[in-house]
Amino acid sequence: MKLTSLIVLFLGLVNFHQAIAKNTSSGLRFPSERLVFHQESRGLSFLLKNNDQNAYLVQADIAVPDESTGLNVKKENAIPFIITPPLYRLEAKSEYSWQIKKIDNLKKLPQDRESVFFIRLKAIPPKGTKNTVNFKKMDGNLTLSKVLHYKFYYRPETIKNLRIANVKDKLKFTVSEGKLIVDNQSPLYLTLGKLAVGQHQIDNMQLFKFIPPFGQQSYPLPKGNYANATVKWRLLNEFMLEMPEQTQKL
């Protein structure tokens, strides 16, 4: 199964999440790859394709994801990166490459592990001429926007050449208080494409919760006896493709 970190949020009277297993949303497409900003890099570029018949006015910024859910955004004032340009009109059937640049000393970030950030693009459907932006009105005069989130990772020099395949055996699994606890003993953020305990398959929505470096993630389990159950999982590699299945006995 191909799974990316792309999340679609429709903003209206309330905010709600719709997580999807493909990297498209109404024709807006991110790259199917893991974006990594290395310590020595001067910048990082990423492409967004618009396969729609409509243009979008795209507002771009950077946020910090909530590690406990993989979906929400934490309040964070000191983000050492910016995206340029912050505002761009993406025409129908076109593509554009944004730039991520550092604006602060990256040594303030942890130097023994990756750090994770969200690329956050708010796509507003305009109408009118290229020089005039009039927001499209929906039922009840509600403006509907799409907020696209895509992760990128900062990687310090000390782990520059490390690959996910190098740390694939660094996950340990236990069950506690009705939850599957995954312990990541590596310096990389890891994402699962599939995860099952015995006969129970972990829902895809739960798999958006990435596993932080030298940290833990938990996944709720239905009531049952998991003693001696087998955990089966597949990690996602740098191209967001599933790696060979791995197993561990609880």
Automatic annotation (TrEMBL):
Pili assembly chaperone C-terminal domain residues: 182-239
GO cellular component terms, A-Z: outer membrane-bounded periplasmic space
Domain Pili assembly chaperone N-terminal stretches: 32-159
Cited InterPro entries: Ig-like_fold (IPR013783), PapD-like_sf (IPR008962), Periplasmic_pilus_chap (IPR050643), Pili_assmbl_chap_C_dom_sf (IPR036316), Pili_assmbl_chaperone_bac (IPR001829), Pili_assmbl_chaperone_C (IPR016148), Pili_assmbl_chaperone_N (IPR016147)
Leader sequence segment: 1-21
BP terms from Gene Ontology: cell wall organization
Compartment(s): Periplasm
Family: Belongs to the periplasmic pilus chaperone family.
UniProt name for this protein: Molecular chaperone
Source species of the chain: Providencia stuartii
